[in-house]
């Protein structure tokens, strides 16, 4: 059973697998897929175009999928795939 803490913000279009846990103050954006049994711990942020496999854990304060810190970045869509 997926558990989303009432203080978490999860976009209604985000795709969540089975038995996902999302902690308080976590943020999950619209174009995100989270696999089965993943844990998003408190204060973690997952921005658009992130795909997580099964059994992944995102720790407090982590930011996944933010704008790249690369001087060649020019606003194009970037993706992150974990697990």
Q: What distance separates the N and C termini? A: 21 Å
Unreliable runs: none
Q: Provide mean pLDDT, rounded.
A: 97
Number of strands: 12
* Radius of gyration using CA atoms only: 12 Å
Name the quaternary structure: single chain
Number of helices: 0
Largest sheet: 4 strands, parallel
Order of the strands making up the biggest sheet: 1-4-7-10
Q: How does the overall form come out from the CA principal axes? A: globular
Order of helices and strands: EEEEEEEEEEEE
Beta-strand content: 25-35%
Helix content: under 10%
Structural class assignment? mainly beta
Structure description:
It is a single chain. The protein has strands at 3-4, 9-10, 15-16, 21-22, 27-28, 32-34, 39-40, 45-46, 50-52, 57-58, 63-64, 80-82. The strands form three sheets. Strands 1-4-7-10 form a four-stranded parallel β-sheet, with no helix packed on it. It has a four-stranded parallel β-sheet with strand order 2-5-8-11, with no helix packed on it. It has a four-stranded parallel β-sheet with strand order 3-6-9-12, with no helix packed on it. The model has no long low-confidence stretch (mean pLDDT 97). The radius of gyration is 12 Å and the shape is globular. Helix content is 0%, strand content 33%.
What is this entry, summarized?
With 83 residues, the chain is mainly beta.
Question: Which helices and strands appear, and what pairs or packs with what?
Answer:
Elements: E1 3-4, E2 9-10, E3 15-16, E4 21-22, E5 27-28, E6 32-34, E7 39-40, E8 45-46, E9 50-52, E10 57-58, E11 63-64, E12 80-82
Parallel strand pairs: 1-4, 2-5, 3-6, 4-7, 5-8, 6-9, 7-10, 8-11, 9-12
